Amino acid sequence: MIKKVILPCLLLSSMMVSAQQNLVQYVKPIIGTSKMGHTYPGATVPFGAVQLSPETDTLSYEVNGKYNGDVYKYCAGYKYEDKTITGFSHTHFSGTGHSDLGDFLIMPTQGKLQLNPGVASNPKGGYRSAYSHANEVAEAGYYKVKLDDDNITAELTSTTRVGMHQYTFPKSDQSHIILDLMAGIYNYEDKTVWTYVRVVNDTLVTGYRQTYGWARTRTVYFAISFSKPFKSYGRKSYDAKQAYRGFWGKFNQDQNFPEIAGKKLKMFFDFDTQEGEKVKIKFALSPVSQENALENMRAEISGWDFEKVKAQAQATWNKELNKIQVTTSNDNKINFYTALYHAYINPTTYTDVNGEYKGLDQGVHKADGFTNYTTFSLWDTYRALHPFFNITQPARSNDMVKSMLAHYDQSSLHMLPIWSHYANDNWCMSGYHSVSVISDAIIKGTYTGDPNKALDACIATAKHRDYEGIGYYMDKGYIPAEKSGISVSNNLEYSYDDWSIAQLAKKLNRMDVYDEFIKRSNNWKNNYDSASGFMRPKLADGTFKKQFDPKDTEGQGFIEGNSWNYSFFVPQDPASLIEMMGGKKKFATRLDTLFTMHLPDEFFAHTEDITREGIIGGYVHGNEPAHHIVYFYNWTDQPWKTQAQVRHILNMQYKPTADGLGGNDDCGQMSAWYMFSSLGFYPVAPGSDVYSLGSPLVNNAVINLENGKTFTVEAIKQSDKNVYVEKVLLNGKEITDHKIKHADITSGGKLTFYMSPKPKK
Description:
alpha+beta, nine-stranded antiparallel beta sheet, globular, disordered N terminus, signal, peptide-N4-(N-acetyl-beta-glucosaminyl)asparagine amidase activity, Glycoside hydrolase family 92 protein, calcium
């Protein structure tokens, strides 16, 4: 009888999800808004289509026809160091190193109407306003700031597809809401292709804007609802004189005219306000139509209770944050849950409430049984973010793979996404890393669609000969340096991607495909120069390029990195790399040199997103290609160095401050590295079901899995000094090979680290 009672109890306890904690309090969206983090502090919900956040300047992408380097500081629209706010727009990238978006900027003002944003040195000369961080609040799902020049308090919150504004005005008969339809991020003179605005009545406005930017055919539709009727409205057009203007001149289109169209438009809506009166706005987006935007609004926010919408947003965040419950210091909790928050911002929802979205073919499609996602920064996120989703967000990961395959079906080039957003591929960065994400999801049991169809899409993408040297790669086994300025990094990344295709083919027993792609995955060896011990550009005649400096990032055949970092980019086969570099002892010494050498400023002076804070020795943590390297000590006889360096990186590169990120967060990749490493394990080669062990930062963590089970990480004798691992137990059984498998996590159980101040040699 006793056994019959105990077994169900044990089963029940293993299936129970831990009680929710208040974890929103540890999220500080202001982290990463200074220097190179490129995050934004505004309001969004997990994977939301709306990112409602302040802009702090209006820099153009170009000056006198040339790239304006200062615009790079504004990839997320907001820079913590700035003293003014120009308004609040509805779309933003989080942590990227290039940009777009910044759609539909709203700015409340009072007094004489000003439609020019003005300049930071004289904010009162335009509609922008001075502000102070002392009067600024940034939380998960909520943002608040006082606009000092007009004495207006701005508050923002959101649902998935609707941004909600609440502006507290002073008493005035000249209160205004400005809608700047020219504003944008990485903006330039002709970025806006066309704009349309329709004033339906004195509280409802709809329209759309088409832009040519990072995404070259992007149209976003909107619907705006005001909580009180505006007494008057108007527009100002900044369009240059056109050869043909039709006969619309019969009307005065500048005042109270209900249908406006042009390239460069600004709208304004006038109100009388009482002291302390709150004017609220609901601003809905759609990729499909004005009607869908209005339907999204009505479905997601039915009334005008701002506090209710805010509470719903924060409750949604709290539910997602509770998927991992950690015990650690307060600062570490802030770092961890802000990282989790940043990881759950992207990819973003790209379907309306009725399931419709616009595809790459510019047609309207309906997502059948899945949510379509966009914002795939794959060169960054395949490494850790998508593997992280396979543990904590498997249902969403499944939908993301389905979204990539829908992209493939609609692509005129028959390719999986490289870097996609808003029904466009912007083709940024290198590799074809969708294949890694897809292989990883199928191998780990996340994807529920047809795996063979998915493999076919991977093969077609990897054989697209006219994309970034793939033809040379297939024919010669490397890309000649004369043919590409990033020949070496492309070869290394293609080799890894091909390995992941081979793993998927092996799982599906398509051994002809496996044989072909496992052979291709060894192409990395063709760029290894045994004489220098580095990956090196190779010329078409088979000789290595003579002018070569492994520290330099310019003209050496690498994208956003140097040979010292990229020479370790063989995550799929560290054993072979170690052998080629002279064995375990010499390899470990090379790793030691990477982490302790001095990299002079001149070697990263031309790399926009890297500063001294993002570098440890010559190891560049502030960029992605080296993120796996610290775990390579596990393949030598010195795994304790992985443990020490992981903890060093965690403490040095992540801080609970505005400048607390050592590089771009890159749509959550930097954050995913932090969380994996804080938990004590990391996916060195996605496409494998193996995680390499490190040194956990947390005292305890409980991962509440979607299957109802829990996986617990426990660090015995955890402290800042006890960074070394004495032994590791998985469900009570000692691990000696420094790795665990995906099934060990998803089956539920406990991983116990016994920590020590001394390395176990």
